[in-house]
Amino acid sequence: MRIAVLSDIHGNFEAFQAILADMDRLQPDDVACLGDCIGYGPEPEAVMQTIMERGIDTILGNHEMAALDSVHLNWFNPMAKRSLEITLTMLSEASLSFIQTLPFFRVAHGHRFVHGYPPDSAQTYLFQKTTFMLRQSFQVLEERLCFIGHTHDLEIVSFDGRQASRAPLHQGRLSLAADTRYMINVGSVGQPRDGTTHAKYIIWDDNTDVLEVRFVPYDITATVTKIRAAGMPEAHAKRLL
């Protein structure tokens, strides 16, 4: 089975459309979204409506948590909080109701899907974990593969039963070892922070044990123009360039 996994769309509908066009051409068997569909970007409603229309299995990100609870909203820095406050004015009741149904994690096809860090955290970042902590997590994690997002940066963590090691992920295909367990950070569709401007997602083929990292170009200028028109912080536009 070939599973497309994407994360952190962040209201960037231009990037999301480009990813969907790429997926439609490649025809994966299933699609999983790891949350943070909203925030930072100018078209959160279009993103949420498309996710609902396509029936994409989605989990809760920390930006969705903030949309549902002001306590979580106050956790954000002032620029991110301002962006979310604008985002909330753009979301329909249908989208907010859908967000309320999202789970903190999902287990499907024998794999775990979570926004931040396993088993079910939407707020914990992978970079906060030491090698010792990673090893502890793998020892209690039941699934061989866990797909995560949240950092907006592609990364793979492997565990051979004794040691945990981490490495960046790059565009292209990577064969995984059958006797090794992994946490795979799939990067960001709508706001990458890995030094490139492409929208990112991955396709995992569990028949061949091959992970493919997809870099997809999109109309960045259009998104930047829409961010500015929406009155969102300028920093969220400049990050895309």
In terms of topology, how is this protein built?
Layout: E1 2-6, H1 13-26, E2 30-33, H2 44-54, E3 57-58, H3 62-68, H4 70-73, H5 78-90, H6 93-100, E4 105-108, E5 111-114, H7 131-140, E6 145-148, E7 154-159, E8 164-168, E9 172-175, E10 181-186, E11 199-205, E12 210-216, H8 220-229, H9 234-238
Notes on the structure:
The model has no long low-confidence stretch (mean pLDDT 97). The strands form two sheets. The chain has a six-stranded mixed beta sheet with strand order 3-2-1-11-12-9. It has a six-stranded mixed beta sheet with strand order 4-5-6-10-7-8. It has one domain (2-238): Metallo-dependent phosphatases (Purple Acid Phosphatase, chain A, domain 2), CATH 3.60.21. The protein is of the alpha/beta class and 241 residues long. β11 and β12 (210-216) form a beta hairpin. It has helices at 13-26, 44-54, 62-68, 70-73, 78-90, 93-100, 131-140, 220-229, 234-238, and strands at residues 2-6, 30-33, 57-58, 105-108, 111-114, 145-148, 154-159, 164-168, 172-175, 181-186, 199-205, 210-216.
Entry keywords:
single chain; 241 residues; alpha/beta; Purple Acid Phosphatase, chain A, domain 2; six-stranded mixed β-sheet; 34% helix; 24% strand
